[in-house]
Write a structure and sequence with these properties.
Blueprint: H1 10-24, E1 28-32, H2 38-46, E2 51-53, H3 58-70, E3 74-80, H4 81-85, H5 89-97, E4 103-108, H6 126-131, E5 137-139, H7 144-156, E6 161-165, H8 178-182, E7 184-188, E8 193-197, H9 200-214, E9 219-224, E10 226-228, H10 232-239, E11 244-252, H11 257-268, E12 274-279, H12 293-300, H13 304-315
Parallel strand pairs: 1-2, 1-3, 3-4, 4-6, 5-6, 8-9, 8-11, 11-12
Antiparallel strand pairs: 5-10, 7-9
Helix pairs in contact: 1-2, 1-7, 3-5, 9-13
């Protein structure tokens, strides 16, 4: 696996990829309710006819996107994750999901990505709310390579999608694109136990693995690239070699990745001891400028050391 830090932020890598397609394809339209990304400046200045800033009006943006999609355009809607999902949810359901419009929703700053902004800017329920929609595909890239592959996929095979992208730089994980078709990848093999995660939290899973390896605990790491629909055959085929699993997420436990995997287990009569590590039903208004995201993780009980202690207890139980 790679460990190099990329030159671009994940959102810029995605936007730049779509910009390159848009330069050659006048049918590509990029709608934004936010102007915070550097790559948007280039898009706005050089492709004025294909970039539309709707203002802080996400509901109108979704309706506008639906109209463009009906006209045959390839449409992208960009905003902070909570504002492109929760705020215009009714419009998404009625004008995109129910009509199965091939619009890509790009949500930036998933989980506690905007760590200093408080609950208004946290997206800790987005998987739950978005996976409840019909016709949707949800992708959760974990590094620059997977972000770029997600962008290419949305252009080459347009459909109704929600792409969850982290706000900050992420170390490289992938060097190939084999994970795209399967929708998941066993990044590290483990002996008897594995951690399943996605996006930003896959990096935390890798960090936890390194520390557990030092304690002679051989643990695998599985990254979920496509959250809906999960490749059940690939997932269960990978997990049959393990005796216990942990699902690690920066999301409410009541409706996130762990819930999806539990449903898959039940539907397939697949029984394996599992530990779900995520956010319990609590909102946090505290923050710490120096410690940032990890400080909130500690409050939520998903900090690195806290997770390691819980995993060790689970292993020996």
């Amino acid at each position: 696996q790679l460990t190099k830090m990329p030159e671009k932020l994940p959102r810029d890598a995605f936007i730049d990829e779509i910009y390159n397609f848009a330069k050659k394809d006048r049918e590509v339209y990029f709608l934004s309710a936010d102007l915070g990304a550097k790559s948007l400046d280039q898009f706005r200045e050089e492709l004025k006819g294909q970039f539309i800033h709707t203002g802080i009006s996400e509901q109108a943006m979704i309706n506008f996107a639906s109209g463009l999609a009906i006209s045959g355009k390839k449409v992208y809607c960009y905003a902070m994750a909570p504002f492109v999902t929760f705020r215009p949810f009714e419009q998404i359901k009625v004008t995109l999901a129910s009509m199965n419009q091939p619009v890509t929703l790009l949500g930036i700053g998933i989980g506690y990505g905007y760590d200093s902004a408080g609950p208004t800017h946290y997206a800790t329920e987005d998987i739950g709310i978005m996976r409840s929609l019909g016709n949707i595909e949800i992708l959760s890239p974990s590094d620059t390579k997977s972000v770029i592959e997600a962008a290419r996929l949305t252009y080459k095979t347009p459909k109704f999608r929600y792409i969850r992208i982290d706000r900050k730089f992420l170390n490289d994980i992938y060097s190939d694109d084999n994970f795209v078709k399967d929708g998941l990848k066993e990044i590290y093999n483990g002996k008897d136990i594995a951690i399943i995660s996605s996006g930003y939290m896959t990096h935390k899973a890798i960090e936890i693995r390194k520390k557990l390896i030092e304690d002679k605990i051989d643990i695998g790491v599985i990254d979920i690239f496509r959250i809906k629909p999960i490749n059940q055959i690939k997932l269960l085929g990978t997990l049959k070699y393990y005796k216990k699993i942990i699902i690690l997420e920066e999301h409410f436990l009541s409706c996130g990745l762990g819930s999806i995997i539990a449903e898959i287990f039940m539907d397939n009569r697949f029984f394996i001891p599992s530990l779900r590590l995520g956010i319990k039903d609590k909102y946090f208004f505290e923050n710490n400028a120096e410690k940032g995201r990890e400080y909130i993780h500690k409050l939520a009980g998903i900090d690195t050391e806290g997770c390691i202690a819980k995993i060790k207890n689970f292993i020996h139980s």
